[in-house]
Design brief:
By secondary structure, this protein is mainly β. It has one helix and five strands; from the N terminus they run βββββα.
């Protein structure tokens, strides 16, 4: 299965008879952060997903496995609407402590002036 985002819908008036009355969604795959990537694809939508929703897709013969799709001419199907995604923190370099540099105040100039006045 793959994650994708529904970005629109598709209407087809002339189609295979097995697809009559079926809804199609335009989907785009997502990266690890859930942002859309890749090209648009039309998927058979048995879930009624709306634009902006994250969905699970199946491809190939698996797209015809849900009971109501077995006899359909489908190669890509939305089989679930994702309610929540939980990802572990992204691996990366560990943060390093910043070195603080504090400028030392010098009073040498002031002391020097004081001594000169004497």
């Amino acid at each position: 299965m793959e994650l994708a985002v529904v970005v629109g819908h598709c209407t087809a008036t002339v189609k295979d008879a097995s697809l009559s009355g079926r809804r199609f969604a335009l989907v785009r795959g997502t990266d690890d952060t859930g942002k859309p990537v890749g090209g648009l694809e039309a998927a058979l939508d048995v879930t009624g997903a709306g634009v902006g929703q994250v969905v699970l897709l199946t491809r190939g013969s698996a797209a015809r496995q849900p009971a109501e799709n077995r006899q359909l001419a489908a190669d890509l199907s939305i089989v679930a609407i994702v309610d929540d995604l939980t990802l572990p923190p992204a691996p990366g370099p560990t943060p390093t402590a910043r070195r603080r540099t504090t400028a030392k105040r010098t009073t040498r100039g002031a002391a020097h002036q004081t001594q000169s006045r004497k």
